[in-house]
Design goal:
alpha+beta; 5-stranded mixed β-sheet; 18 strands; about 50% helix
């Protein structure tokens, strides 16, 4: 295409627009073209097509004779003086453009400075209209048009909100007291340093470096793309049952809006004869028993039959909070074999939870980024308030002493170290895909190394701090009941929905403290739930880009709706057994296998030294100390995760809920849930190998190398042959090619000859006329090119007679 420089700017723009519309976007057969460049002076254009899968994103390279100034304007351009025009070819990389002409024109509207001053790309403000130049589509170019956080604080808080979840409140304090009190902190911190942080940093840095979700990020090693699909499956399981727990919390919040908490007595319709309200501390000490009404009964006060019945029920006594949870809210059945009916009160609470998730993620990270200020910071405010109240309660110091008193002999027990590693692994939420997703919306130059350390350490400190609140109130409850702390200490749902509510019911203004506590659980849960749901949405958007933009709201509605209906099974009368089964198998063994695989693939297939170079390119420095991260990724972290996996499997005794043991068929379903996510690894690998050509080893070798488009999403940060560009770059949206000046890449000619898939294009020789008839009547409208040489012979289309005539008249 040649534009007459004597034409007016309006005429030039019209010619350019018509040329784009007629020759690229209206003819699918010409989908090979997505970029032209016109160089001034005597400069032709050489193009390298990234046809091989062995390197990072590279792209097109201009020839050594390009003049001082050329214009790169999407699919066309103009320059000072006479120049050649090159057109991009689709090589083996199957690059194509799906964007609109307006978007391509806008994105590529730059001057390319290649002078000795080393200046970079400057916006061509005069060539295109202000409508193109003023649009905000380039606001997120660092993340490949996927959007980005408004500021680094939003990302930091979102990671903290995702990592700090319900496990920090209801599991860590229990593990700490069970495994040696303060001595447990030694294996806990050790596991954080040698296993937690390395996996954590890898996931965050890989997401930020590539601006890709958990599936697309495996362009780093396409053979193992199944790891990303496994992460998606894990997130789907977790997102489905996590909101069930939040629906429970909402049920408790609504039940707390009363003058007296409904679980504060045994006088309700759901209570049984086993319900006991322990109010008299001296009753059991004097040989008495407490009946349903809370009265202390001595053996001499009742008949022998009544005393025997009272004694029988006292052996199976339950607190009012226990019966409220199981008999009123859950209306629990006899076992997983008896699913029963849906609890419609919980169904409404579950709908409310999913409505909040949908509203929060309506606009993606733009809306989610504002909510994390609440979900990340509000729980700390509530914890501080509850701590201030707990220290005033009797028995507080008994609970704290029990929580922190070190038992050094417990450090000899390997199970203590295993518990510490497991808690770190699951508390950080690695292998769920959430950290990869959140980091993929980062700016490329964000200090992800700092963020990973801050979030990892902050997560552990939160767990430790929460223990002072939980065990302080548990100490108060033990004091009230006149029993030892270990007799009322619990973990998981038993702590959050039985032990803690029982303690709260004994405080003055108990409804207030109950509402605050469950609001804290809700905010903690939503912090994790938002990120988990966004992970599933991001994976689907990366796989199907058409679902972005306005279609996102429908995709989000579909994801939330699917998980809502799947969750209905877990709010039936037997739903708590289903939830327990999914909780035990969805993110335990499978998450450990995925964690071991992802670190090993990066370290041994891609290369840990190579990855450290990528981090240096992104951060400007190596993560310190470099030797630690290198060997932690290569050996230490995979070894620890493997040991955890083996110990967890060896200690497997089947699933249970309280005293109920799951049947064999239910345990088999649990293992099917486990392997449903892990099986993606071999299945996807098989299909990847089947789609390639060549011998089996050739296919495997190719698939264990990074794909051609692995690397930063923005061409501004791309590297060529391991060397960083010294100038800003740009590329057509949807392509994997980039224009680079010769000044930034030495030895261009020899590099083109060495690179596999390289080809050279002759200048376009046809004169572009404004009349539409000439365009329609041109049989050879387009480029004449010489493609790759095979066996010493050039393969390509010969110019037509018309083109030859034009060539003579326009020969440089």
């Amino acid at each position: 295409m040649v534009i007459d420089h004597s034409d007016s700017m309006k005429s030039k723009t019209k010619q350019f627009r018509d040329y784009v519309s007629s020759r690229v976007f209206k003819d699918d057969k010409r989908n090979t073209a997505t970029g032209n460049a016109t160089g001034g002076g005597n400069g032709g254009v050489s193009i390298e097509v990234c046809a091989n899968n062995g390197g990072a994103r590279t792209g097109m390279i201009t020839s050594t004779t390009m003049s001082t100034k050329a214009v790169v304007s999407g699919l066309g351009g103009r320059g000072n003086g006479s120049g050649g025009v090159g057109r991009r070819l689709r090589g083996e990389s199957e690059c194509s453009s799906n964007a609109s002409s307006a978007q391509l024109i806008k994105d590529q509207n730059f001057y390319l400075e290649s002078g000795d001053d080393g200046s970079g790309l400057h916006k061509n403000e005069s060539f295109l209209s202000e409508e193109y130049n003023s649009s905000d589509d380039t606001a997120s170019e660092d993340s490949g048009g996927r959007g980005s956080w408004d500021n680094p604080i939003e990302f930091l808080l979102s990671c903290l909100s995702f990592a700090v979840g319900l496990g920090n409140i209801w599991r860590f304090p229990y593990l700490c007291y069970r495994n040696g009190g303060g001595a447990f902190l030694i294996p806990y911190v050790t596991s954080l340093i040698f296993m937690g942080l390395p996996v954590f940093l890898y996931e965050m840095s890989a997401g930020q470096y590539s601006s890709e979700g958990p599936v697309a990020v495996w362009k780093i090693c396409p053979l193992f793309t199944g790891i990303g699909y496994g992460m998606c499956c894990v997130s789907l399981y977790i997102g489905t049952y996590y909101n069930i727990i939040l629906s429970w919390a909402f049920y408790y919040i609504f039940s707390s809006f009363s003058s007296e908490l409904p679980w504060s007595s045994c006088d309700n319709v759901w209570n049984t004869l086993a319900c006991r309200k322990f109010n008299d501390l001296n009753c059991t000490g004097h040989g008495g028993l407490v009946d349903k009404s809370g009265s202390c009964i001595q053996e001499t006060d009742v008949s022998t039959d009544e005393w025997s019945s009272l004694k029988h029920y006292s052996n199976f006594s339950k607190m009012p909070s226990d019966e409220f949870f199981h008999n009123n809210m859950l209306q629990i059945s006899d076992g997983i074999h008896s699913i029963g009916y849906i609890r419609w009160e919980l169904a409404l609470c579950l709908f409310l939870a999913w409505f909040i998730v949908y509203s929060a993620l309506w606009k993606g990270i733009k809306s989610f980024g504002k909510l994390v200020y609440f979900t990340a910071l509000f729980p700390y405010l509530i914890l501080i308030i509850l701590l201030a109240r707990a220290v005033t309660l009797p028995g507080y110091m008994d609970g704290i002493q029990f929580y922190l008193t070190p038992k050094w002999e417990r450090l000899k027990d390997i199970q203590v170290w295993a518990d510490a590693s497991i808690q770190i692994f699951f508390s950080l939420g690695v292998t769920w895909g959430g950290m990869v997703t959140l980091a993929s919306y980062n700016k490329f130059r964000n200090n992800v190394y700092r963020d990973a350390v801050l979030v990892g350490v902050g997560n552990c400190l939160t767990s430790f701090f929460a223990g002072f609140v939980i065990f302080g109130i548990i100490g108060f409850m033990a004091h009230e009941l006149g029993v030892k702390v270990e007799e009322v200490a619990d973990e998981g749902a038993g702590l959050a929905f039985i032990a803690y509510p029982e303690a709260v019911s004994r405080m003055p203004i108990s409804p207030l403290w109950s509402i605050l506590f469950f609001l804290m659980l809700v905010s903690l849960g939503f912090g994790t739930q938002f990120s988990t749901t966004e992970t599933v949405v991001t994976i689907l958007q990366d796989e199907f880009p058409d679902l972005r933009g306005k279609n996102r709201r429908w995709l989000l509605l579909g994801v939330c709706g699917f998980m809502f209906f799947a969750g209905l099974l877990m709010i039936t009368e037997g739903g708590v057994y289903v939830l327990q089964l999914i909780d035990n198998h969805s993110a335990t063994y499978s998450a450990l296998i995925l964690g071991c695989m992802e670190i090993s693939v990066m370290a041994w297939c891609y290369g840990v030294d190579r990855y450290l170079e990528d981090l240096k390119h992104m951060l400007g420095f190596y993560p310190w100390p470099r030797i630690f991260w290198k060997w932690a990724w290569k050996l230490v972290s995979p070894a620890i995760v493997t040991c955890i996996l083996c110990m967890t499997a060896l200690n497997y005794e089947g699933n249970s809920y309280g005293t109920y043991k799951f049947p064999t068929w239910a345990n088999a379903i649990g293992w099917m849930i486990t392997f449903s996510s892990v099986m993606f690894i071999p299945i996807v690998a098989f299909f990847k190998i089947a789609q390639e050509k060549g011998s089996l080893m050739t296919r495997i070798r190719k698939l264990t190398q990074p794909s051609f488009d692995w690397g930063p999403a923005s061409p501004l940060h791309r590297r060529l042959n391991g060397e960083a560009y010294n100038m800003p770059l740009t590329r057509v949206d949807g392509s994997n090619m980039t224009l680079v000046t010769v000044g930034s890449v030495p030895n261009t000619t020899s590099l083109l000859q060495e690179r596999e898939g390289a080809c050279q294009l002759e200048p376009l020789n046809e004169v572009f006329e404004e009349e539409e008839e000439n365009i329609e009547n041109s049989d050879d409208d387009g480029l004449h090119m010489m493609t790759q040489k095979k066996d010493g012979k050039a393969i390509g289309r010969q110019p037509s007679k018309k083109s030859n005539k034009s060539n003579k008249s326009n020969k440089l």
